[in-house]
Amino acid sequence: MTMKKTTLLGLGALLLVIGLSSIVFTSPGEKAMTDTQHAEIATLASGCFWCTESDLEKVPGVLKVVSGYAGGEEKNPTYEQVSSGMTGHREAVQVYFDPTQVSYREIIDHYWKYFDPTDDSGSFGDRGFHYTSTIFYHSDEQREAAEASKKALDESERLGGLVVTPVLPFTTFYAAEDYHQNYSRTCPIRYKTYRKFSGRDSYVKETWGDEAKIKSKGATPQPCPLPGTYVRPEDGTIKDSLTPLQYKVTQENGTERPFDNEFWDNKRDGIYVDVVTGEPLFSSKDKFESGTGWPSFTRPIQKESIIENKDSTLGMVRTEVRSKAGDSHLGHLFDDGPQPTGQRYCINSASLRFIAKEDLKDEGYGEFMKLFE
């Protein structure tokens, strides 16, 4: 699920649970995991394991969720091997849960709500066998509960098609690499960007609405700090702090009118930062008159502050530009700019805040004075 521009590369454990005759292989990362010797386990595949893990760990009674590879014969597979589609493994998760708080049947009933179980060739933007869904049962009781849940979903006709997710006996599960574990928390911006553009969230909202919402258990672990001090605020805070136009542009991928925006003709020295987070994005030193009516730049201050995605709206293929820390829609990138880069970052004024050179130190951006020396 690593994203490069707009290509969605699909991406998309372990302790032996007492009382289960499961073959489970552990990774070094397992040593740091919490004690689950009295838990029961469910092994489930539904496409991207980042997303499956994030959705199911919110279920009350779930102790932890581990991302990994299930059902294949390749021993200790790597992500690259599984992604080739040649190992027989699927991206999957193992869900450790307290049976006194939540039943296996309830886990399965939740499981159906976060992917499309009528899709037999992949999951949303991720295609291929290794992204197909499966319930791997560990006992006859689990098999019966899973099949009953599947039958009930079919009979409800909720999905507009038959559930194709197979219910298979558990064989093997290997924990994925450490960097895949807890990905929604350790790399929140990349995860949210991937998930949004995969189509998963829009499907869940349209199919299940509020029924798919689960109140998180306790305090959410804090993600690893992003570079710098630029962190995206809560959604409610963002909406309260922005003008309607700023919100439409940055949060809803809107576009402002050309020649009728704040910075298209601004010629002062300074830097332009993300209006949502304050992350430095562009310098007046790289700004040029493009004749388009929007602020245009030959390059960002730091390439790492920008995310590029494929945009196929409006009947054409373009490269969308978003801020990294804030995941704000900024504008688009074109290859018709002046040298030395030949690029034109066409950016909405509403996504930016301008900080004049003389105000950089007072605003906390003193390190960028060197751009104007």
From TrEMBL:
Does Transmembrane show up as a keyword for this record? no
Keyword Lyase assigned:
no
EC number of this enzyme: 1.8.4.11, 1.8.4.12
- Name the active site residues: C48, C346 (nucleophile)
Tell me the ranges covered by the MsrB domain, including all copies: 235-357
- Assigned keywords, A-Z: Multifunctional enzyme, Oxidoreductase
Please state what class of enzyme this protein is.
oxidoreductase
Q: Which InterPro entries does the UniProt entry name for this protein?
A: Met_Sox_Rdtase_MsrA_dom, Met_Sox_Rdtase_MsrA_sf, Met_Sox_Rdtase_MsrB, Met_Sox_Rdtase_MsrB_dom, Mss4-like_sf
Q: Which domain of life is it from?
A: Bacteria
From the UniProt record, list the reaction(s) this protein catalyses: L-methionyl-[protein] + [thioredoxin]-disulfide + H2O = L-methionyl-(S)-S-oxide-[protein] + [thioredoxin]-dithiol; [thioredoxin]-disulfide + L-methionine + H2O = L-methionine (S)-S-oxide + [thioredoxin]-dithiol; L-methionyl-[protein] + [thioredoxin]-disulfide + H2O = L-methionyl-(R)-S-oxide-[protein] + [thioredoxin]-dithiol
PROSITE patterns listed in its UniProt record: MSRB
Pfam families the record matches: PMSR (PF01625), SelR (PF01641)
- Function text: Has an important function as a repair enzyme for proteins that have been inactivated by oxidation. Catalyzes the reversible oxidation-reduction of methionine sulfoxide in proteins to methionine.
Family label: Belongs to the MsrB Met sulfoxide reductase family. Belongs to the MsrA Met sulfoxide reductase family.
Q: What is this protein called?
A: Multifunctional fusion protein
- What is the source species? Pseudodesulfovibrio nedwellii
Which gene produces this protein?
A: msrA
